[in-house]
Amino acid sequence: MAHFELNGTWQLTSPQRPDIDIPMTLPGDNVSALLQAELIPNPYFADNEAKVRWIETCDWHISREFDVDDSVLSAKQVWMTLTRVDTLATFYINGEQALTSSNMFAQQRIDIKPYLKQGTNTIRVEFARVDLEGLERAQKLPFPIPSAMGNNQIPHMNLIRKTQCHSGWDWGICLMVSGIYDPIQIDVINDVWLKGFSTEQQWQTDGSVQVDVLVEVETDTQPHEISIEFDGQRQSLQTEGSSYYHCQFHIAKPKRWWPAGYGKAHLYPITVTCGKQALSRTIGLRDLSLNNQADEHGSAMEFVVNGVPINAKGANWIPVDAMPGRECESRYRALLQSAVDANMNMIRVWGGGQYESETFYNLCDELGLLVWQDMMFACSLYPSDDDFLKDVEQELRFQIPRLKEHPSIALWCGDNEVIGAIGWYDESKHNKVKYTVNYDRLNRMIEQVIGQQDESRRFWPSSPCNGELDFGDAWHDDSKGDMHFWDVWHSGKSFNAYLNINPRFCSEFGFQSWPSFAEAKQFVPEQDWNVTSPTFEQHQKNPRGNSIITEMFTRYFRFPSGFEQMLYLSQVQQAMAIKTACDHWRAISPICRGMLYWQLNDNWPVSSWSSLEYSGRWKQLHYHAKRFFAPQYLVFSEHTGKLTLHLLNDAKESVDVSAQLHWVNWQGEVKQTWSLEHTVSSDSNTVVWQLDEAFDSSELKSGFFYVEGQVGQERITNTWFSTHELKSLPMESAKIDVTIEANKVTLVADKPAFFVHLECDTTGRFDDSSITLLANQPVTVEFLGEDLATMAESLRVYHLMQ
């Protein structure tokens, strides 16, 4: 069998724009090609988004030539395999229509030999307008299917199997890209075709594991040898025609795959060969389940890996870039490594984006990141007619077998907020029975198809969800299932609202911030350095976003002066909001076994809920997450009615912790110190200190508590204020001296300084930032980047009372 790919340079044209005939690189998208050819301005800069919206009103064609020789034409079959074709595409080979595709998430495979000729061949792909197709489908519906027009700027996107956020979201630009984002693969088949293989794990009571391997081969009647190599073992099978072939391996003492923070994410290579063909991948051996047992608080929502309950800590994932041609391994790695560096162990792939690339899942396997995998449905209602169900079934029968081989996949989830959306739209909220039946028909089909493809993982109907066949209010019921808690951001409640719920698992909650000054300078012209400027408002997609941020300033802070301080303080506020939630939910563990904030990343430079900016730069929230998600953490809590300090240990083993707790006044005097020495058991939550009743509570506004501890080489710190309304506290202005030596920055404050944040104009981050400085106590942080000169020249140090 021979194999080649039709990647590289194609030509991009449009029948509506005969003046355009430019190169386009595949894998890639049309917007990236137009930008590369300088036919459009950068959509991400200033208010250029509106200037490129004409692209969505055009059809787009791509074409190229490729050579075919006798060895190809004499083959039995010539298969073309296509994935991530976006979206309404018709393929022509040598002028003949060979294939149509209308589902970005499905795989297409066709024998193209009948269309080929010797010598030079042409292939052309015509992409049709999605907006017109959506309108046409909507007009044929037996009853209206509402779509998320508050997010999408293109109507009826829910009727097209395309990344929903391509037409905008409340954090996303509207760029209706088209293209092909995976390699176009051509397989020339003669006598045998090794089509693929899958594995299943059967765990034994003695801790060993049996790995079943199922190999799919298409072959002639001649026997061919299949060889499978795994864990130093090799097995051979003889083919007897086209079929599936099975073998088993027994691993007596498996090296298990563990989530980050719980052990090594060990991976085993496995290789299958047949004739001259070979397929390889890595698999992780792990036993995973989801515990939903009833308990005194309701019902658990607890992932268990290798018999160990996991405290899931992480964030929600959206596509890397609004221009898919910019997706690459280095960007995926940087973002996911930043997640692990912030002590995360779970990522939720959100249902308004895309089933991610193999690069993403391979990195999650490698880094020990569990993946909560939504199916691609979000915030709209969807049809349940036979044609739509057939289309979705086709995508699932491709995606589930593809993804189930990854040890990182922890859960299949039917959708994002679709059951709740029945109550959002006029058409559905006045006829809930009809639309619930419509929802159930699609959701049950999804569950059935996934169950047929993968029996090893749980199916979770929706997020949020109280449980199977439970259509209750998972936005407000914190006793079971997973919860989305948006009362603080969307409803304007105070940060204390986080303290009033005890979720079993909170899979969405968030608070916006503006980009950092370093980020803003990359897309905001200097004349627009104002949070209400045209550029800044164009890069704020939540209609009330800027108003909410500034209104919350008035609740909690003394109002900032100047553009830089506004940006800085918005990130302090965001970090404080999410830290309030995570500190409380960690302090009540094991009641709460999971927290995934919204959101990890941005797909363009924007004001959003992310903790990583579009460039990958860490916001202050991400630095705080590194601390509040740490496996060992000291957290203050008042949920029992008294101020207590909890020592949390997520690890599988006991740990020794040495810490000092200080009561400090605003002038920097340490008025009282408590020494804490503890050995705590695995997976534990231990109260190690409680405020003495003799302590005059009326004095709590005269200072703050600061704890610093050590676990091995890891330093733990936390700061407690008597109120979130920091504007009411008599903090004093501090002067901070800064000394730079190579990549080390030493900070010394003459008085206590809070949310001390370092920022510079080059790629990289600091090993710590947005920290508390005690008076006259030097703290040294390291810059993790290469351009030390630019770091030193551009370094800015912000703090709360600057």
UniProtKB/TrEMBL annotation:
Involved pathway(s): Glycan metabolism; N-glycan degradation
The reaction(s) this protein catalyses: Hydrolysis of terminal, non-reducing beta-D-mannose residues in beta-D-mannosides
Keywords on record: Glycoprotein, Glycosidase, Hydrolase, Secreted
Entry's localization field: Secreted
GO annotation, biological process: carbohydrate metabolic process; glycoprotein catabolic process
EC identifiers of the protein: 3.2.1.25
Domain Beta-mannosidase-like galactose-binding: residue ranges: 10-181
Mannosidase Ig/CBM-like domain boundaries: 641-718
Predominant place of localization: secreted
CC per GO annotation: extracellular region
Superkingdom of source: Bacteria
Molecular function (Gene Ontology), one example: beta-mannosidase activity
Domain Beta-mannosidase Ig-fold: 736-801
Residue ranges of domain Glycoside hydrolase family 2 immunoglobulin-like beta-sandwich in the record: 204-286
Coiled-coil zones: none
Subunit composition and interactions: Homodimer.
Family: Belongs to the glycosyl hydrolase 2 family. Beta-mannosidase B subfamily.
Protein name per UniProt: Beta-mannosidase B
